[in-house]
Amino acid sequence: MALIKCPKCGYEEETTGLVTVCPKCKADLSQVMAEIGKTGKRTQGLVKDDSVTTHEYIVRTKDLVKEYTMGDTIVRALKGVALDVRRGEYLSIMGPSGSGKSTLFNMVGGLDKPTSGTCFIEEVDMAQLDAFELAWLRCRKIGYIFQSFNLIPVMTALENVTLPMIFAGMSTDEMMERGRTLLDLVGLGDRLHHKPFELSGGQQQRVAVARALANSPAIILADEPTGNLDLQTGKEIIDLLKELNVESGVTVISATHDLKMIDVSDRIVHIRDGDVERIERREDLDLQIGDLGSETGI
Ligand SMILES: Nc1ncnc2c1ncn2[C@@H]1O[C@H](COP(=O)(O)OP(=O)(O)OP(=O)(O)O)[C@@H](O)[C@H]1O
Ligand SMILES: [Mg+2]
Hints:
alpha/beta, Rossmann fold, 2 domains, 8 helices, binds magnesium ion
């Protein structure tokens, strides 16, 4: 946690780092948060795994277990997942509905905590981070893309893309320039001031991709990014993610039911019933995606 102090009324509060207005007088605190964000407080609570000497793996999970308690019933959504993801890899996670893909994402993305087991991001044990450090890591290291786009409806494309940059402490000029560059990159340079409802589904997902790239993350976590898109638009988003993966080296981890995704993946992790069933490498697959896609309309 970080202690913030409102410059206007002096109110102090412990926060995870995602507060933008003073809870008491409603003064704008983004500048205060930006200063804290720049400092980054990276030294406390970071426990490195000494058994690993290289940074070959950007994400590692060990015996990851997640249980949800529903009244008297315990749902074991993850049953000891061990998964190593190499830096720069494009990894697809496939599995039937309810197999635990989104749950795994929430653990890797620091959006929820495992019941037991460990998740390392760049060999840092996420469980050892305090709330502020976790917010810092989520803001700087990971870009999130969801099936339902999750854009803020009242904000323009540019405002949606620049929002995470506020938390990273970027200046307004820098934010605007980077926001425009990113929207250009995803082919929406002429839609900067459109709100989500003024954009097509595919365009909204492009905005979400640009937003995920806002703070130059090392990892993009995409949970069924093509789930709400038609065939052609889905293909465009997959191609865009692959292009970013190849050109900027960002690691892409994507949960998907979309077989088109296999074509661009370095490895495919099959999850079943809360555990890794098998892992395939792209080069070992003899699946002809083109044929499959056109036949089945997936
Ligand atoms: N918040 C929750 N509370 C209780 N049970 C949950 C919760 N979230 C998920 N589950 C259960 O955990 C299991 C895994 O769910 P999860 O959402 O991870 O599946 P999934 O593989 O992402 O499925 P889909 O392909 O449909 O998105 C399911 O049995 C689900 O019912
Ligand atoms: Mg899911």
